[in-house]
Amino acid sequence: MYRIPTMVACVLALAAGSLGPACAHAATARGVVYEDLNENGVRDAEEPGVPDYRVSNGRDITLTDEEGRYELGVDDDTIIFVIKSRTWRSPLDERNIPRFYYIHRPDGAPDLEFGGVEPTGPLPESIDFPVYKQREPDELNIVLFGDTQTRNQEEIDYLAHDIVEDLVGVDAAFGVTLGDIMFDDLSLFDSLNSTVGLVGIPWHNVVGNHDLNFDAENDRDSNTTFESVYGPPYYSFDYGPIHFVVLDDVVWRGRVKEPDAYRGGNYIGGLGADQLDFIRNDLELLDRRKRIVFFMHIPLTAEWIEEDREEFYGILENYPHTASVSAHYHYHEHVLLTEEDGWGGEKPHHHIINVTTSGSWWSGAPDEAGIPHTTMRDGAPNGYSIMAFEGIAYLTDFRPARRSEYDQMRIWTPEPILASELDSTEVLVNVYNGSERSRLTCRVKGVTDWTPMEKVLRPDPHYVEMKALEETETPPPGRRLPDPIDSPHIWRAPLPSELEPGHYLLEVQDIDMYGVRRFGRRAIRVE
Asked: Over the range 435-451, which residues count as b (16 or more CB within 10 Å of their CB) and which as e?
């Protein structure tokens, strides 16, 4: 069930005459996980150790003994961390970032543009982790941010006013930013973290391709600034009845040396051997009836190292209640992975490509508050998601920035509708949180019965109109929007040809993949 600890593996390898470079600097880290009764961060004599608490070196996982003690093998580039158990928590810093790890890198990281892990010196005699009891019910909400991706302080201020202010006091256990926290300038981590910290809940962070050290020679060193701020790039934790796994699925392939090439483009999706071992060891300790949710940056549908994806799927297929959430694409989509996608599980795997808080990279015309509308390429507004759990059941709720939570769709028809063209006129509906399992119907109130709508792949017409304005002689202010995509959540239906000139109310009903019913309305005028 457990992997052989690093030190034992090295001893066995030495005996076999096959000692490798990873074992050359192997040592053993020791310490205690303890209940910090007075919350001073130091183990006092009366504070008990916590038994059966999981501790990891990023590959192996061990359980503390009856006195809370553990031992783990380390080399000269290891992060030791605890895996939060239900009803316990680790300390939070002043910005609500969990502190549950110790970085062991005696010589520090290479000298890079944005700095990184400083030399930590010799391995301490005891690496101790304080934990605190807390109540965790079976029902919980979490907040999901895709790509905050702020390139400067002005955009951090956009985030503060567009998203953060409305979330203060939210009923949620914790939040997650799903990578691309920054837009290349890692010196802004502190300001961004202080801003998001105002929400007032614990906040976890996934590494994205724009959070890397682009001047790093290899994948391992590309995370050094991220690690100096947030700790391990992958880990796991329990909250309530759910097991959450934070992944690092960005593989850096070395700095780009061509003078005209974008230095941040040399990456691919993947996990690597140590992380795959960690995932396997982590899940083996779980009851297979447990809900497991993975957080990552690059979607499973993107370009990945194929062997990594196959092995990852092979691990997950043994667990019937998994789901995963990514970002990266700057649109919102529910993907149900099946055999056609290489998924071999009994049921489709639900993968959510989450709405981004930065929308289309903080682009588009500014509104009365000076904040770009930054509509995403699929025609949906920027925003965030709430993922709500009840036991192992869950649903996700799309929350548009600075709009009502009931604003869940945009209905489009020509303005006005020409009676002479009714035979060829259709209504298009963009349901922001829609999926292939959504069921849409529409009617002209008082004229027609509810009629099923057809899911189609096409650009959002409202977004197309906004994009066209940029090509006029008087384009709107603001950074130009990206080109539209075929939106994954558009539905269509023909308008009834028998409409006489006049004013009507068009109504749309959506029953989503979770069985939640929502309505939309549009006043239409026929001439």
From this structure: beebbbbbbbeeebeee
Query: Residue 442 phi/psi, 5° resolution?
Result: -140, 160
User: Residue 180 contacts by C-beta under 8 Å, 6 or more apart in sequence?
Assistant: 146, 147, 148, 149, 208, 209, 210, 211, 297, 327, 328, 358
Chain centroid to CA 250: how far? 13
Do the beta carbons of residue 129 and residue 31 sit within 8 Å?
Answer: yes
pLDDT over 50 (residue 326): yes
Q: Each residue of 374-427: pLDDT tens digit?
A: 999 999 999 999 999 999 999 999 999 999 999 999 999 999 999 999 999 999
8 Å CB contact between 123 and 27? yes
Going along the chain from its start, the domains and CATH numbers come out as 6-131 (2.60.40), 141-400 (3.60.21.10), 409-526 (2.60.40.10)
Task: Enter the pTM of the model.
Answer: 0.94
pLDDT at 259: 73
Q: How many helices (H) and strands (E) does the chain have?
A: 8, 29
Distances 4 to 51, 287, 312 between C-alpha atoms, Å: 21, 22, 21
What residues contact 259, with CB distance under 8 A and at least 6 apart?
Answer: none
Look at the block and give the residue holding tokens 């009834």. 496
Provide the residue type at 236 as one letter.
S
Query: How many CA atoms lie within 13 Å of 266's alpha carbon, on the beta-carbon side?
Result: 18
Distance in angstroms (rounded) separating the CA atoms of residues 143 and 205: 12
Question: How far is 524 from 275, CA to CA, in rounded Å?
Answer: 55
Q: Does residue 58 have a pLDDT over 70? A: yes
The pLDDT value recorded for residue 304 is 97
Q: What is the torsion angle, in degrees rounded to the nearest 10, for the CA atoms of residue 486, residue 488, residue 489 and residue 490?
A: 30
Tell me the β-bridge partners of 292: 243, 322
Both tokens of residue 64?
Answer: 């503390």
Residue carrying structure tokens 């069930």: 1
CA distances, 228 to each of 34, 254, 408 (Å): 24, 20, 39
Alpha carbon 509 to chain centroid, angstroms: 29
Percent of the chain with pLDDT over 70: 95
3-class secondary-structure state, position 5: coil
Helix (H, G, I), strand (E, B) or coil at 10: helix
413, 522 in Cβ contact below 8 A? yes
Segment 453-486, tens digit of pLDDT: 999 999 999 999 999 999 999 999 999 999 999 9
**31 - beta bridge partners?**
70
Cα distance between residue 399 and residue 222, in whole Å: 33
Return the structure tokens found at 65.
């003994």
In angstroms, the Cα distances linking 179 to 134, 246, 367, 404 are 28, 11, 26, 26
User: What is d(CA 249, CA 297) in angstroms, rounded to the nearest whole number?
Assistant: 7
Contact 427, 411 (CB under 8 A): yes
